[in-house]
Give the backbone structure.
Amino acid sequence: VSLDLFVDASVLRLAVTFSAPLLLAAIGELIIERGGILNVAIEGMMLVGASTGFIVALFSESLLLGAVAAMLAAALLGAVHGYFSVYRKANQIIVGLGLLILGTGLSSLLYRIFIGVRTLAPQITILGSTRMPVLSDIPLLGEVLFRQPVPVYLTCVLVPFVAYILYRTPLGLRLRACGENPRAIDSLGISVTRIRFFATVAGSAVIGLGGFFLPAVLTGSFADGMVGGRGWLALMLVIFGRWMPGLILTGSLFFAYIESVQFRMAMSSRLIPSQFLLMLPYVAAIIVIVWAYRRAEAPQSLLKPYDREQR
Amino acid sequence: MKKRRVSMMGVTVLLLLCALTISQCAPAAPTVVLESPTEAVAAPTEVALSPTEAPAVPDYKVAAIMPGPIEDSDFNSQGFAAVKHIRDVYGIQVDYSEKVSVADAERVAREYIGAGYNIIIFHGGQFVATAQTLAPEFPELTFVTYTAGANPDIEIGNVWNVGLRFGPGSYALGILAARMSETGKVAFVAGIQTPIFITALNAFRDAAIATDPSVEVVYNFTGDQNDAVKARQTVESMIGAGVDVIAVFLNQGVLGVHEAVLDADQMVYIMTITTDKSEAAPDNYITSLVQDFPSVWEYIVGQVLDGHPGGYRALDVGSGLVIAPYRNAPQEVQDEVSDIMGKITSGEMPLELDGKNLP
């Protein structure tokens, strides 16, 4: 294996492109977890976002409408999650797993109802790569960073935006307080349940957008189970990123890079079986999580339903 | 408080049950559009497809077990088309299960056997071991399985073995790849490493190198025939490494390949299998190896009805496998391929096909 392939421009460019859906899903999960709710239904929400968004984009011929539909559909699942885990104080893991199964089945069902069986799979016009004038001509960096589809840039902008909201606004402070010490914020007369519920809905909408990224930017069509474990990787990314947007961005780039480089390694060398290379991102995820989790500080009230009557 | 906890438990269990119910609903009640690629005509079918016009043959019931969703517009939708075809031709009761994993295949087959189905068709090369397990246990039934070709390990007493002989067709793709490549680097991509695809890879590579010894052949297995995202990642990696002609032995995964080649800076040619999808990227397609499963199933079920419960049927160039009309290939290249394919099918040029070892 030539060492050049590890810094090959096309490998790095792929890593940036394929990090975007992971990043969107992880940022959505971050918003939810910062409020103290654990959502394990990311995979199902992404699938519903991908399916709904694709169907709406196909029939309306508008990617924008598809994106809105994807966000709304996932937000609806988020509202169900929020209702049970915040207002009804149900076990968040069980609710999440229920919604995961629901979302997986629902995505297939929606596609079957609206599209059905066809000899040629319908495709939407995707948002392909865009060359940024002047910047794309910079050696290496230009190809890696400035020849990306527009949604990749927008996803990157989301990171400082969410960081700003979390750390520089009263809303962010309240959200973080809900995840750390909900009793303190309740004593100020602010509704913990309302903040947690809306954080779950908003975060789910962003996760749905992450699902829609797949057909809208990468494949042009919906395929059954197309999220392919990326929802679980996003869940791990939040831990890897220690619940901080900047580190989550680094983590998503890292995992996407491992994924991209393994495809090139599989072509360049036959010493390592392709099956082993395919599991590399997940092996890396486990190793990194074991290392990161020891230093990570999860929101203190994560997974704990808030009950003001409880002592 | 205790009462509240109990009611919450009930609500949670109810939510889980609803989720499971909807997820289980998904495979049923498909909207069937096999005639028209562009327009969906609502024609819901029941899971157990009932006989139509042809006279009923009550002794036989056919069950098909498919690895993926029938709306994949590829291998599984071809299986679904074959299910409908034999129902219409023979008027026998048919049923199918989709998205069946290898681990579940035996259980699903046993459920069909328990329900009186006596021709079990495993629509996928990954189910060979399951068919081999069940065949000796139920000698009065017929099992259909797919392999890379005539396989001496398979008892044909009550097993119909369909040889998905991609070798000769894949050899044609190898010639085309070598002749169409300008970078001198061509590629083969498939999902899972079964003997069927390993045979195809070896034939493709042998042909490319025999046509132009300077050609470099790279290959990769994405791990999933239907993961379009991984397929796009793999193909983009290949394009980044200088590949400009790719033989794509994927099913639904090919959708990601279309977008990868359409988004590429340079012209990248592709060739695929199962169905002709060239409308999706007309400038990039050279040809496809189109498989006619309905005719193969019709033949096999006909044989079983005539009293032949086992045997071998090749799905090969000229017998159920068609090389789709060429696009974007110069006439002299087309002639060269036709000439060599003529020699292969006549036996003048025998191929040594290896389905066990990767290059």
In short: Chain A has 13 helices and no strands. The mean pLDDT of chain A is 92. Residues 44 and 215 of chain A are 15 Å apart (CA to CA). Chain A touches chain B through 61 residues (CB under 8 Å).
